[in-house]
Amino acid sequence: xxxFSTQSARPSVVREALDFDVLFVGAGPSNLAGLxxxxxxxxxxxxxxxxxxxxxxGDEIGDHAFSGAVLDPAALVELCPDYLDRGFxxxxxxxxxxxxxxxxxxxxxxxFPPPFLHNHGFxxxxxxxxxxxxxxxxxxxxxxxxxxxxxxxxxGSKVLWEDGRVVxxxxxxxxxxxxxxxxxxxxxxxxxxxxxxxxxxxxxxxLMRELDAVLGLxxxxxxxxxYESGAKEIWEIPAGRVPDxxxxxxxxxxQADGESGGxxxxxxxxxxxxxxxxxxxxxxDPFADxxxxxxxxxxxxxxxxxxxxxxxxxxxxxxLAIGGWNSMPRLAFAGGMLVxxxxxxxxxxxxxxxxxxxxxxxxxxxxxxxxxAEGDFSEKSLQRYSxxxxxxxxxxxLYRSRNFHQIIGHGLSVGALLKLxxxxxxxxxxxxxxxxxxxxxxxxxxxxxxxxxSGLKRDQLDWGPRPDGxxxxxKLDDVYASGTLHDEHQPGHLKIVKGDxxxxxxxxxxxxPCTVFCPAQVYEMHPDERGQVAKVAIAYSNCVHxxxxxxxxxxxxxxxxxxxGGGGPKYTLC
Length: 574
Ligand SMILES: Cc1cc2nc3c(=O)[nH]c(=O)nc-3n(C[C@H](O)[C@H](O)[C@H](O)COP(=O)(O)OP(=O)(O)OC[C@H]3O[C@@H](n4cnc5c(N)ncnc54)[C@H](O)[C@@H]3O)c2cc1C
What we know:
Elements: E1 17-25, H1 29-44, E2 50-56, H2 74-79, E3 92-93, E4 96-102, E5 107-109, E6 123-124, H3 127-140, E7 146-152, E8 156-162, E9 165-171, E10 174-176, E11 182-187, E12 191-199, H4 206-215, E13 227-236, E14 246-252, E15 261-268, E16 272-280, H5 290-297, H6 301-307, E17 311-321, E18 332-333, E19 336-338, H7 354-374, H8 379-391, H9 393-400, H10 404-408, H11 414-426, H12 447-451, H13 475-481, E20 494-496, H14 500-510, H15 514-517, E21 523-527, E22 533-538, H16 548-552, E23 558-560
Parallel strand pairs: 1-2, 1-12, 2-7, 4-14, 12-19
Antiparallel strand pairs: 3-6, 4-5, 8-9, 9-12, 10-11, 13-16, 13-17, 14-15, 15-16, 18-19, 20-23, 21-22
Helix pairs in contact: 1-3, 1-7, 7-8
Bound molecules: flavin-adenine dinucleotide.
């Protein structure tokens, strides 16, 4: 496994080692639920003398949290039945649901939502506000004999190994120049050593990549890990324009025929609206772009009418793991576990993963408490987590939705609708079960193969409405609204691993999809003095950490690595 992290390759540096019993990597809902439940369990079992840590690459917990989001509260109720009394930040409760198949100017509205999109009574949340609340509740918590450290601003840059078992992570160095030399402010990353490390990095984790390369975690899965790419804007709209509890989902326009994706519009508190779009990354279209789909989507009369007179106040982008049951890796191994999107715990049909990831955290905590009590951190011991999760309601939900993405992966044809209906009756079974999925990046066609029939050149394709700064926005305007900031002196965290020549040939054959799919306009192909495209220019500091490039680069030429901790987006409402 090549070490892509320029941050960590400094053998002469002396690193402080900190010892934990349990270390959580990533402060998403999955790991925060895991930590919370673990504290409940160790308190109930009177396990003392423990040190438990959690690191998060965002400057504050919640800065990098991005979702839709309508929350199925099943796992939250298990974790904290009185969550409403404890000030859980609810934006609204789903009361008005619309499901549409849009055409450009109109559409067909479903008389009632299909079962998998039935959200009535569920809370609408901002994931950023939700995880901030979870972290604040954890900060208040005191468990006798247990030290808890929540450490935002620390990115795990590589896995620590000992005799083939995971023994923690090393955090990223800070104060390094782009050429690798150290500044006077240099702070070496620490070695955080733990008996159990729980990886909850979200979709396409950098550490997960290393774990899989060493341990072959994905080897037993039917399918590889697969993803959607999502972009979302938060709008302030005129008071009373959209009723509280309003939720809209749509398929159809602006997605091209044969492609899969859809929209969501959720009414938030304070007359705010979340408007988002997701596209499947196994699309053949080399120019598929969630940001572009979102800009087009907002021009639909039904959506424009809601946004008119409003103001866009925040933007973000992120990948979403959609493989579910058939893409799940091995969940536990000696010294470690995977939870949440890192383990593809998402129901693609419901566009929901928060409750499944949280259930993963709860089950992981149960196995960790047993392991702490018995002093056994072997794979066999930690596999109790896997058995508990797969046998739980979350396992059943993922199993029943196991073929969803492959059924609708190439659009909502009559055949796809019939199969979808059948799968609802049979508990997920359809002919050919389990339906296979390939690597997302491999699905990308050449420009000629995909657009050749139209005879159109790149600049003649439909690139959507010209951004007017009122209803529609350029990527750079939107990135500004994401609050994204990185120290620009550090080494670039997006590694071109096979060289620029590969990018240039990709530009010639596939039109360099990264210059289109990145929702933050990080990649541009720049001509040299002779006007020939010879180099990819990477605006690292725009990166919103969505991971789309790492997943969808058709040449496998981009590897996302964590920048020094604290950089990235600054979501507060996403
Ligand atoms: C557009 C979109 C819409 C969605 N809508 C919904 C919805 O309506 N309902 C729903 O239930 N789900 C929805 N989801 C899915 C949901 O957001 C995820 O399933 C859920 O957030 C997964 O939680 P997690 O804890 O596994 O990971 P995440 O929420 O991704 O959190 C991972 C955390 O780990 C941190 N991290 C990553 N790597 C490192 C590292 N190396 N070191 C330190 N920290 C690290 C990240 O900064 C992040 O804070 C949506 C997702 C998207 C993209």
